Amino acid sequence: MPSFIPRSAVKRLRRQAAVRLCTALAFGATLIPLSSPQAEASDTPPKGAAQWQQPKTQDVDKPTAIDAKDRTSLLGKNYASSKDTAFTTSGDGTGLHLLTANARDGYAWKTAATLSEDGFDTDAWIGNACVTGSGKYAAVAYAPRTFTNKPELMVRGAFTAVVNLATGKVTKLPYQATLAYFSPGCGTGDSAVFSQLSHDGDKKQQTRLITVNAATGKTARPVTYPGQVTSAIPTRHGIIAAHGKQLVKAAGAKLTTLAVGNNAPFQIKTDSDGGVTYIDRTADTVKKNSISSARHLTSAQITKGRSTPVTLASGKLSAWDLDASASGTVVITGKATTKTALPKTVKNPGKIAMGARISTHAQAAVTTAWADGKDSRIRPEEALSERTARTTVHVLASGKTVTLDAHPDASRQDASGAGPSPRTAWTQEGHRPVHADRTHTGPGRRLTHQPGRGRPYVLRTAQRLQKAGVPTHTPPGRMGCGPGRRRQAEHHPFRELEEHRHGKLQPPGTVPRLRALR
Can you name the residues that pair with 464 across neighbouring β-strands? Predict the structure, then answer.
């Protein structure tokens, strides 16, 4: 019989002893049932877990308006007679919400309208909107978030509408448009311009511009131009847009060059004097080193024709932006250095967050995020209700900032807002869209063709969506593309466009904004 114990046996005995010790320690104290609250795992994943993002804001309600006692100090003694209105958008599973706040009411947020379409499987509605020159109407391009996964739907899939911001009346338009930061474009008067680009796979690359009168909801005949025509806006001189490296005026089917820059002009804005200010980026191919400049053409230069613009300000591409009020004041947001005396219609106040949206009379700048601090990666059940938007309102006159919550109200989907777009008037059989001249007999009921109206024109929207892989109904247990499957901006299908702002936070419900690159 051996007088020693093998090393393997010693190791085995040590492991057994360790197991007995751990068991004794665990059960020698108070036993904790597996079903007890102490033993249940927290719903919050660890900080390093995949798909987890630590909320940047606490889910604690903020005021919905500036307190009455603080309004004079924040807004000035004449705030009660102000006609200024702040505007923003917020999207969730219930629709794209258009939110407004009047200065005379302490910028108390309310829902002007909510836009969506029945029959789409999505966890969020996204889109872009602009306010017309009168400040009374908004032009909107909106779509399910899943449309960003298909290039065809990005360039020609967004539904379009105009909204009366005072009454909430929605007029849905019989055209679809491009999901891009520059469409629709607003400027002078109550007109707006929607853009419809070609897909990269199309044999002919061209752009259609569709002008709509937001007050009446009537659209002009679409005009087609060769190549990519972007950032189109209505001005007193007609439509001004970008075409390659050129700033152009679009009149009829003709494009007239107004100025030539280093790259494609973008963020084109018009002012109350008829001038135009836009951003031109340097030819540096390294994004982080790119410098952009604010170029300006006066009304006289635009009337004259091709001219050399004046450089008003410049800064890093990722540090500043341009916006304009409905009343015609162009405002530089973010940090840019003024290079020359600014026209009276252009302001560079500083201390405004880059990308802020300017109110109708340029009295406030608004940025928006979701109040819960999360992004679009939420649980399916969270997508079934409205998400509170947290806004930061910077008052330009006083330089003071206040944080206010906006609670979207999906019930603002009135008969026109919740009704189908002319591009998706569904029948029960196969969800086939029909022409707008058919009448709807009630929610979920069959659409019937009116006698005597001639042969119905059947649209092919549903078939196109199904071929592109977008569900036109909601299967049980599914909710959009699901948490964690967000389409990244760098995979955007548009050619000659680069990601906007290196991943800067965008207002909830908006399409990732892109920088033009030529």
Answer: none
**Beta-carbon-side half-sphere exposure of residue 392 (alpha carbons within 13 Å):** 16
| DSSP letter (8 states) at residue 463 | H
Averages of pLDDT over runs of 10 residues in the chain (518 residues) are 49 52 42 35 47 50 93 94 97 94 97 93 91 97 93 93 96 95 95 92 89 96 95 97 96 93 95 97 70 96 95 95 97 97 96 95 95 78 83 95 91 60 51 32 26 28 44 32 29 32 43 40
Q: CA-to-CA distance for 141 and 329, rounded, in angstroms? A: 24
DSSP string, 54-93: --SS-S----SS--GGGHHHHH-TTGGG---EEEEEEEET
Tokens representing 187 are 């400027």
Report yes or no: 95 and 114 within 8 Å, Cβ to Cβ.
yes
Give the HSE-up count for residue 90: Cα atoms under 13 Å, Cβ half-sphere: 28
The domains located in the chain, with CATH, are 68-418 (2.120.10.30)
Q: What angle do CA 141, 147, 152 make, to 5 degrees?
A: 95
Residue at token pair 């409905």: 326
**202: number of Cβ within 10 Å:** 12
Start-to-end C-alpha separation, the chain: 88
175 vs 178: CA distance, rounded Å: 10
Residue with tokens 């909510």: 114
The two tokens of residue 23 are 């068991």
pTM of the prediction? 0.73
Contact present, 15 and 21 (Cβ < 8 Å): no
